[in-house]
Write a structure and sequence with these properties.
The chain is an alpha+beta fold. The protein is about 25% helix and about 40% strand. Strands 1, 2, 3, 4, 5 and 6 form a six-stranded antiparallel sheet that branches.
Length: about 140
């Protein structure tokens, strides 16, 4: 597994699986979002806190490449790195099965920042991510 700015461990639940016994594709977006929220909390921020200050960070694009399936009850490691390109924050995320570190998905999640209803470059939140950002 390569180096990441943030990692968190989770476990799949049986009800997230489809009839083939694998985690349904839509649930991976939930895992990715939980990871981003946990990462943001780890730097002392939150989406709710930003919203109360008039700052809304929203997903504008998600690209997921499915590599291997997770099954019910499996533990996994969800990882991310962050970069900034213009007005976009781009989360490069990967999920690995914990038991064998098999890569299950790669994803690129683009986010934009809207302040008081106006699209901005996201400078209002950049300070929280300085040590992680690669322009």
């Amino acid at each position: 597994m390569k180096e990441f700015a943030y990692k968190c461990e989770m476990k799949t639940r049986d009800y997230e699986c489809d009839v083939q016994g694998v985690v349904n594709n839509a649930n991976y977006q939930h895992y990715l979002e939980v990871t981003r929220h946990e990462f943001i909390q780890s730097v002392g921020e939150s989406f709710d806190g930003w919203h109360k200050r008039g700052i809304d960070v929203m997903v504008s694009k998600v690209v997921i490449n499915y590599k291997a399936s997770l099954h019910g009850g499996e533990e996994f490691i969800s990882c991310l790195n962050l970069k900034r390109t213009g007005a976009r924050y781009i989360f490069n995320q990967e999920i690995y099965r914990k038991s064998d570190e098999k890569l299950c998905i790669t994803a690129e999640v683009h986010c934009v920042c809207v302040v008081d209803g106006v699209l901005t470059r996201g400078d209002e939140i950049a300070g929280s991510f300085e040590r992680f950002l690669a322009e």
